[in-house]
Amino acid sequence: MANFADRLMSAIKQKNSRVVVGLDPHLQLMPPHLLEDAYLEHGEGARAEACAITRFNEAIIEAIAEDVVAVKPQVAFYEQLGSWGFVALEKTLAMAREAGLIVIVDGKRNDIGSTAAAYAEAYLGDGPLAGDALTVNPYLGEDGLNPFIDRCRGTDKGLFVLLRTSNPCAGDLQDLPVQGRPLYLHLADLINAWSLGTEGERGYRSVGVVVGATYAEEARQLRRQLPNLPFLVPGYGHQGATAQDVVSCFNSDGAGAIINSSRGIIFAYRKRYGPKEFARAARDAVKEMKGDINTALGRCD
Amino acid sequence: MANFADRLMSAIKQKNSRVVVGLDPHLQLMPPHLLEDAYLEHGEGARAEACAITRFNEAIIEAIAEDVVAVKPQVAFYEQLGSWGFVALEKTLAMAREAGLIVIVDGKRNDIGSTAAAYAEAYLGDGPLAGDALTVNPYLGEDGLNPFIDRCRGTDKGLFVLLRTSNPCAGDLQDLPVQGRPLYLHLADLINAWSLGTEGERGYRSVGVVVGATYAEEARQLRRQLPNLPFLVPGYGHQGATAQDVVSCFNSDGAGAIINSSRGIIFAYRKRYGPKEFARAARDAVKEMKGDINTALGRCD
């Protein structure tokens, strides 16, 4: 069974892509005809909306599969439809696996003891919601993360721990001064220690961190401090970061990071081609993003 | 529409109870006959397990309703069954509402911007997963909490922000020294500021905090620092805290805190009466817990 970090680095190399696409199906941004068709079929409500999301994701996954290493469904957008939303999420996970993509479930889950173990079972086990990796929140400390990290040892599963997030108020806690340096640098050392024993053959660990592209200088420092941890990098595109901004998230081997864009890709139709051609718009947008990042890294085909 | 804090304090007074019961349906701890019956009906798998959980919760809710102010379903235990688990959660929420109980959804959700808004819509909106209150994680800072806090202004919804958790490694981040005092005291000031504008008529706010009963001295200090914030207190019973330990979580009015117990109540049958009488065991256990806390506070009927 291949280690998660090895699988991730292998996909980056094979596809010469460092792109993750966030599958965040905002209902208000969806191509209207998909919702209209589903309402006609099932009547208005969560079941129809879940059906529209599934069809949307199916077309998006097919359009982007050859140019991305992973997809990252954001659980909140499924969760707001209740159990029907989870039916859509289960189908989305299955379609992404079928397309050969790595699936990072963006749930930012966290808890302690047997509850953390239940989340780990849900998303890193072998049930219907299981992905290849999960995002988690570190506020509860080591015993809150261990049930997740344990799932990454000797398996093909991975984890991304929130470290330096991309939002404007990220610093409220993350920048608090702890013994002369910001909290997130202190946490980086802790995660570095906690993640020991998840190394693959390519030098990276299966436990990585979330580092926002909107804070390029912080990313540069974290890259030096955590050379072996994969970075999952939000903030590109809609949140304002450019290809140049994300260069500091990579190691000199052009690996070690994957850059996420969500609405900039999946809702690209709103800026080109229109709703009927949402899949083609996503494909072209993802090819541009892939190229922009590779150009900034000097790693074009 | 009654403010959440007013509803909570009114329930405490009316029932003379400060007890919340966690609905955390560990499959391994469930009365075996419930699972066996469900497997016979639906075959083995998530659907049968979700059905067993629903029946279990139905009997537990009926048994405890008159002695508790709230129930707190722990989402992870439903989530690990995928979409069928959410069907069980939706039914559980409806049954608890029907029984006149306040429902605190224990999800520890967190994200930023439109994603946080989607979680808030899921759990504090009016969809099938909506409760009266939600637990959330503060690591992302103010703009990660605002979409949740905004839902508590001018509505009957509430929030509990993780502050000082009950687990052994809680201090890894929460105790880090920030300008001469532990991080959680600094965060307490932030939450105190962010929660302004959610006050009810009884002096409490609809945005409260999670404070573990396993750290009684920290709880005492936080109670002084946050006189107007309701405390949701885990750690009683199975995690080791006693009625004496939780006294420091209350204000002198005997209000301001609710104490959670999960497996000590819902799986009380494992220590008395046996599996067929799990509901009676839960009822007796919850009456004892309610009495123990009231005795410690000097507030017996």
**What fraction strand of chain A?**
5-15%
Largest sheet of chain A: 8 strands, parallel, barrel
Predict the CATH topology of chain A.
TIM Barrel
**Class by SSE composition of chain A:** alpha/beta
Spell the H/E element sequence of chain A. Answer: HEHHEHHEHEHEHEEHEHEHEHH
Q: What's the CATH architecture of chain A?
A: Alpha-Beta Barrel
By oligomeric state, this entry counts as: homodimer
Report helical residue fraction of chain A. Answer: 40-55%
- Under CATH at level 1, the class of chain A stands as Alpha Beta
Number of helices of chain A: 13
Return residue spans of chain A where pLDDT drops below 50 for at least 5 consecutive residues. Answer: none
Greatest interface (CB-CB under 8 A), with counts per chain: A-B, 61 and 61 residues
Number of strands of chain A: 10
List keywords for this structure.
homodimer; 301 residues; alpha/beta; TIM Barrel; eight-stranded parallel beta barrel; two-stranded antiparallel ribbon; 13 helices; 10 strands; globular
